[in-house]
Give the backbone structure.
Amino acid sequence: MDPSRITSVAEARRLAARSVPRALFDYVDGAADDELTRARNEAAFHAVGFRPRMAASMGEPRLGTELFGRSLSLPVLLAPCGLVTALHPDGAAGVARAARSRGTVSVLSAVAGASPERVAADLGSGDRPLWYQLYAPGGRAEWEPLLDRAAGAGYEALMVTVDTPALGNRERDRRNGFSGSMKLRPRGAVRLAGQVAARPGWAVRMGRAALAARGQQATDGPTVGLVAAGGSPFTWDDIAAMVERWEGPVVVKGVLGAADARRALDAGVAGIVVSNHGGRQLDGAPATLDVLPEVVAEVARAVPVLLDSGVRRGSDVVKAMAMGAAAVLVGRPYLYALAVAGTAGVERLLDVLRSDLSRTLTLLGCPGVDELGAEWLDPDPVAIAD
């Protein structure tokens, strides 16, 4: 599909629903239980207004920032996500190529369906703006070699997700015939076959990619399977041990309050991601934007604080950074775009967010993301009509 048709995250979502089997779309789009936290994430951004400054004399707004010594052309990273390779043949490697082409970072999930070595090799011998995100249901015996493999492949930072001691109850997946670990039940297989038949373009693309990749897996090194129903539990002692073993920055993802932010600092992390897993874990958890100020205050600039969950427009990036985030990560938005048009779709999605971010700063009268602060936001919440 023509990537120029992606004009917003909402449009990418609409197109993605027509591009892949319903079960895959629901896996990306869905959340836990009644999906309340998923809705709260976006509503929290909607409730924040701006205080623009008029007649400002400024040129093109500054969008660049720096994280852990790497310069980024915009403060939007591509978050770690599972099942990336099932959406489009370009898969996780294509996502990494898109991030590099647009001057940002891609975070490869251990359950993306591609090995860290393969994704790094696909980027070649040049610059590799890659982070690795860890799941390890098997505990230390599993995560130690994974860390060593990612380090050997040149990944710059390690991201450890701490909000998955068990999998959330994702009811859309169950309705589509998947168990908690995404193992397809017999009845689900029949349903999926019908969905695949309704998306022949996806089936042809994926079939050709599977034929072309025969024999490749043997040289890739093993990948981590989808997190089992028991989840991937980590303790703060595990985090401290990872900090000691990993030579680069370790970033903890899944913090939702000051107490855990302090524990993360005590464990020696280099960064924190305020995240509720996009509402895919504990339904009823707070919106990330609502707890961001609490975490920022606790950290007091000791380490960068990032945010994910609910970012859908460049204006959302501005709001998060004005409240203290060093940058944001997006997950569903780029997965929608990947499903629509592969690598080119992800590049287009990043271009849309860049344009939206630049326009918002211009209308706000703010010269750049480095000057954002609370003074650019309206202190009174915006009333949202039912």
